[in-house]
């Protein structure tokens, strides 16, 4: 039987008269220990805010890294953070909204707005209960306030996650009754839709300074598609409204949360398209705190790593020692990564990073002349490169204050030439993320290989990653899309 755990931001948020349930503070949960190692745990995140990079956000993020079932998930938090994101799903609910609210008697003086509070899929208006359940199934968040608006027809105008403190004394009884009902249910996953056409959209930005694939590589994807009977079309941000015309999406633009690349991935996924990078992979890979917790939970070798809050900053000095590498949770191409040589540097750099995120990452500094990049596609080795550090610098890409950058060299090898321990570790790390396309970065140390990070959007440039496979690299990638589409088609039959 699954064990339940409720998270609150402060102990006082769970009032003395509330039901006796397993409640812990966010701080205790984030600290790890026994709670982090538990399995088959269902977490209900009741923090005061789910704002991006807040304590509430990190509770859901680390719950997923630890293999705990959590509501709201990070994906739900992201969807609810932007009308542009949640409107993708509310369009499908608007028909039910009109059928249920449209039955009410209307007149010239009838209201044009209506609010409904939904607690774990339950509401206090009997005739709207089917709608409450559907909204909760779409956005699994403990407490939601939904605003409906009538402009000719009724539709969802806004959805907001509410904190526990927003529930009035009169609403506490219904809330806990709904919570009790929810705790007795089995955990279910959202339903997915299928689509079966063979047109592949490749999202790119021609103006991006360090894109995942250069122009030559993109044209080779187009050529490989033709040889496999797939129409590969290069699209840009402005083509968002056309996305549903395709049956698959390949993102060749640097991905970020709260960015249009994530919106594209979410939209494609909601349309039942085959997607690389899929939304879950973006969420898991773009945040280094999540990756650190995920690797630790599964005993994947990595540099000595600490998740830091303002209160425990000096633990980095005590447990890691200088120099210390400090990382903002999100960053790519060596951006957002700094090295502190002493306490003054630690406090200065951390102070700057804490303005952007409630948690940051501290990591042991391990210098090696190169990093391994092992490409993994569909849980199988795809390509292997050594990325050399840039000249007189400790990173692969050296970013100058004026915006310029300098990259080190590279060496591309057959996957058979990769040391077995490096390949085994890379496959284990990528397997934790999913079955998409990943680039696992590793360093070889006297104690064995360690994983630095897993990239959901790894580089595939002409004349670099394709030096060994040549055109076969592009054909294998397109072939993976074809195989997935074929599996979906046969599954439909």
Oligomer: single chain
Strand order of the largest sheet: 20-17-16-21-22
The residue ranges in which pLDDT falls below 50 over 5 or more consecutive positions are 189-196
Shape: globular
Rg from C-alpha positions? 24 Å
User: How big a fraction of the residues is strand?
Assistant: 15-25%
- State the helical fraction: 25-40%
Mean of all residue-level pLDDT scores: 86
Global structural class = alpha/beta
Give the number of helices.
15
The count of strands amounts to: 22
- The end-to-end distance, rounded to whole angstroms, is 36 Å
The biggest sheet, with number of strands, parallel, antiparallel or mixed sense and barrel status, is: 5 strands, antiparallel
Helix and strand arrangement:
Elements: E1 3-8, E2 23-25, H1 26-30, H2 34-37, E3 41-45, H3 55-65, E4 69-71, H4 74-80, H5 83-101, E5 113-119, H6 129-138, E6 143-151, E7 153-161, H7 169-183, E8 199-203, H8 215-227, E9 231-235, E10 248-251, H9 260-270, E11 274-276, H10 279-286, H11 288-297, E12 305-308, H12 315-319, E13 324-327, E14 337-340, H13 343-354, E15 360-364, E16 370-377, E17 380-388, E18 397-399, E19 405-407, E20 410-413, H14 420-433, E21 437-445, E22 448-455, H15 471-492
Parallel strand pairs: 1-2, 1-3, 3-4, 8-9, 8-10, 10-11
Antiparallel strand pairs: 5-6, 6-7, 12-15, 13-14, 13-15, 16-17, 16-21, 17-20, 18-19, 21-22
């Amino acid at each position: 039987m699954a064990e339940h755990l409720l998270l609150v931001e402060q102990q006082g948020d769970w009032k003395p008269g509330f039901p006796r349930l397993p409640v812990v503070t966010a701080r205790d949960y984030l600290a790890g220990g026994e709670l982090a190692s538990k399995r088959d745990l269902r977490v209900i995140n009741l923090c005061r805010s789910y704002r991006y990079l807040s304590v509430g956000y990190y509770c859901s993020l680390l719950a997923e890294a630890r293999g705990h079932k959590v509501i709201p998930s990070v994906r739900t938090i992201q969807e609810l953070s932007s009308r542009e994101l949640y409107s993708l799903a509310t369009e499908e609910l608007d028909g039910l909204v009109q059928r249920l609210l449209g039955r009410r008697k209307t007149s010239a003086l009838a209201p044009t707005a209506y609010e409904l509070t939904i607690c774990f899929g339950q509401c206090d208006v009997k005739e709207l209960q089917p709608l409450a359940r559907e909204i909760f199934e779409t956005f699994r968040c403990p407490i939601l306030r939904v605003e409906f608006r009538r402009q000719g027809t009724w539709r969802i105008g806004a959805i907001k996650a509410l904190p526990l403190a927003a529930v009035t004394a009169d609403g506490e009884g219904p809330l806990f009754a709904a919570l009790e009902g929810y705790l007795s249910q089995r955990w279910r996953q959202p339903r997915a839709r299928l689509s079966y056409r063979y047109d592949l959209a490749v999202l790119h930005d021609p103006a991006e300074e360090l894109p995942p694939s250069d122009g030559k590589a993109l044209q080779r994807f187009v050529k490989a598609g033709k040889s496999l009977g797939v129409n590969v079309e290069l699209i840009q941000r402005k083509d968002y409204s056309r996305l549903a015309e395709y049956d698959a999406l390949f993102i060749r633009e640097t991905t970020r949360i709260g960015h249009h690349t994530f919106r594209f991935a979410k939209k494609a996924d909601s349309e039942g398209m085959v997607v690389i990078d899929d939304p879950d992979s973006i969420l898991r890979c773009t945040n280094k705190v999540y990756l650190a917790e995920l690797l630790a939970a599964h005993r994947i070798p990595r540099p000595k790593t600490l998740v830091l809050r303002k209160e425990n900053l000096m633990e980095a000095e005590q447990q890691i020692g200088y120099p210390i590498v400090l990382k903002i949770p999100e960053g790519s191409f060596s951006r957002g990564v700094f090295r502190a040589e002493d306490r003054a540097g630690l406090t200065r750099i951390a102070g700057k990073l804490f303005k952007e995120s409630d948690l940051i990452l501290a990591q042991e500094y391990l210098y090696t002349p190169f990093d391994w990049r092992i490409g993994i596609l569909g849980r199988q080795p795809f390509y292997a490169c050594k990325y050399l550090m840039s000249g007189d610098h400790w990173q692969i890409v050296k970013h100058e204050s004026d915006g310029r950058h300098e990259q080190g060299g590279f060496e591309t090898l057959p996957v058979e030439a990769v040391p077995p321990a490096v390949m085994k570790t890379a496959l284990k790390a990528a397997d934790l993320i999913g079955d998409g396309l990943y680039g696992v970065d590793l360093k070889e140390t006297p104690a064995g290989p360690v994983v630095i990070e897993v990239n959901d959007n790894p580089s595939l440039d002409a004349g670099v990653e394709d030096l060994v496979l040549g055109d076969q690299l592009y054909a294998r990638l397109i072939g993976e899309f074809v195989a997935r589409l074929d599996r979906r088609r046969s599954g439909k039959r």
